[in-house]
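tl;dr need the bound structure. longer version: we got a ligand (2-acetamido-2-deoxy-beta-D-glucopyranose) that a collaborator sent over and nobodys looked at where it sits. i said id run it. heres the input, straight from their email, havent touched it
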Amino acid sequence: MENKRWVCFLMCAILSWNSLAPQAEGRAFFVFGDSLVDNGNNNYLATTARADSYPYGIDSPSHRASGRFSNGLNIPDIISEKIGSEPTLPYLSPELNGEKLLVGANFASAGIGILNDTGVQFINIIRIGRQLQLFEQYQQRVSALIGEEQTGRLVNEALVLITLGGNDFVNNYYLVPFSARSRQFALPDYVVYLISEYRKILVRLYELGARRVLVTGTGPIGCVPAELALHSRNGECYAELQRAADMFNPQLVQLLSQLNSQIASPVFISANAFAMHLDFITDPQAYGFVTSKVACCGQGPYNGIGLCTPASNLCPNRDIFAFWDPFHPSERANRLIVDKIMTGSTQYMNPMNLSTILALDSRT
Ligand SMILES: *[C@@H]1O[C@H](CO)[C@@H](O)[C@H](O)[C@H]1NC(C)=O
Ligand SMILES: *[C@@H]1O[C@H](CO)[C@@H](O)[C@H](O)[C@H]1NC(C)=O
């Protein structure tokens, strides 16, 4: 009798441990940032920045719009695939409960930037400070489930992705001529200010327990169909936005390497989104795209005007377009980007690529 109870105690302990298996197997993944990485948080908000209707998601398994700014998967989804995890649920999703919390969470919100005044026109979005607060709240919820110590370990061992910056130019400094920020700052000073604010965000993320953080710079924001539609006669990229990205990205790389030397550990990994995009923007045919200038879904020149809606032009084959809508890459372009994140040389991933990180962390 006593024996049986003892066996049950062991077995039951093992069974309940197994029921928390997502934590033991896959690595948790946390995502912060803007529309490039939002998995659907904005569906739950009163905002105009949303991707919850047709034809968004047309190539996803359900063929339904989920709030991702893609025809199918986005960058975090494909990273989840690579680390052998389920896609992260949006933090605001009512489905994110119980064991599902152990997979991680996506806190990103389309329209946000480094600065609080970025994306104000979208009204109700989750600014980065709030995303970090929600990450704290998440940790309290997980602590109630598996205890504080285990939660700390889950967060320390997790992979983190943060994508910010593009909107601070497109949806702030350059949103309208003579914007408040452009009257306040010359471009080089604005970039220095952005980097100083980004520093605080990354330090906070570290304080909250993040120990492997992929940080993407901005892509070639002057080359997206939306900017070509406004500024380009012959398909050339908008020089002013390219100049902004050219200033911002190297200073971000420098910031990350400063933080890493202060911490004395390669916590922050820089992902050169500019170079990753530029490859297929410069030579789309080499990557199997018919064009990198015209969006699949949109209207007007380059299909770059306004939003992608049920009334827009829609290309029949999304795999041969680098851009899905006027601002966001197609799933196939996202796959090319994640390939570079996984196995790119130090020109793309600094100080190391994700495959190296995964190999390194599985040993410790
Ligand atoms: C942004 O807003 C948050 C919350 O209101 C505040 O704590 C933070 O200091 C603000 N950041 C800046 C740079 O003003
Ligand atoms: C990943 O990065 C490492 C270190 O920089 C490099 O040696 C390796 O070649 C990269 N992987 C691939 C497939 O290029």
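gonna send this back to them w/ a short note. The chain has a mean pLDDT of 93.
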